[in-house]
């Protein structure tokens, strides 16, 4: 039996421009609208990410609160964060979003989960259970929200 990969990705094209999609990702208050893991309950308004080093909080559906430490940021193109329990060291997993405009108001979006540096034993089972299909669910929901013209 082989172990699951420690870095998984999913990619799809979305019929919206990169700026619109990036706003939905970089504003934590919007994330519960499209979270394909059904893990996010809410995030306070006013936390729009603007730079590497920013920290935003989210409340999970189980009531837990996470600090998310932004470790990569390029406006409109790339954002990545490492979640942790409030006031605790980051356990070593990372969520990344990369956007590439492909023309005609369309954007290729790649969503990656990297748990290659995960050190917290209690998180390993969930990390191992996270699949490309989980990431694709977030991409599909993000597309629904981004493509909504109403």
TrEMBL record:
Pfam families: Polyketide_cyc2. Residues 28-47 are annotated as: Disordered. InterPro entries: Polyketide_cyclase/dehydratase, START-like_dom_sf. This is Polyketide cyclase.
């Amino acid at each position: 039996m082989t172990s699951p990969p420690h870095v998984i990705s999913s990619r799809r094209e979305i019929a919206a421009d990169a700026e619109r999609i990036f706003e939905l990702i970089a504003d934590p208050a919007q994330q519960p609208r499209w979270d394909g893991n059904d893990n996010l309950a809410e995030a306070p308004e006013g936390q729009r990410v603007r730079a590497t080093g920013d920290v935003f909080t989210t409340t999970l559906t189980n009531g837990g609160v996470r600090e998310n430490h932004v470790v990569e940021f390029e406006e409109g193109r790339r954002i990545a964060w490492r979640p942790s329990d409030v006031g605790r060291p980051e356990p070593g997993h990372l969520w990344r979003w990369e956007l590439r405009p492909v023309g005609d108001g369309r954007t290729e979006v790649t969503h990656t989960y990297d748990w290659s540096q995960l050190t917290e034993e209690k998180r390993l089972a969930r990390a191992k259970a996270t699949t490309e299909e989980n990431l694709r669910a977030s991409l599909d929901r993000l597309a629904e929200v981004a493509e909504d013209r109403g």
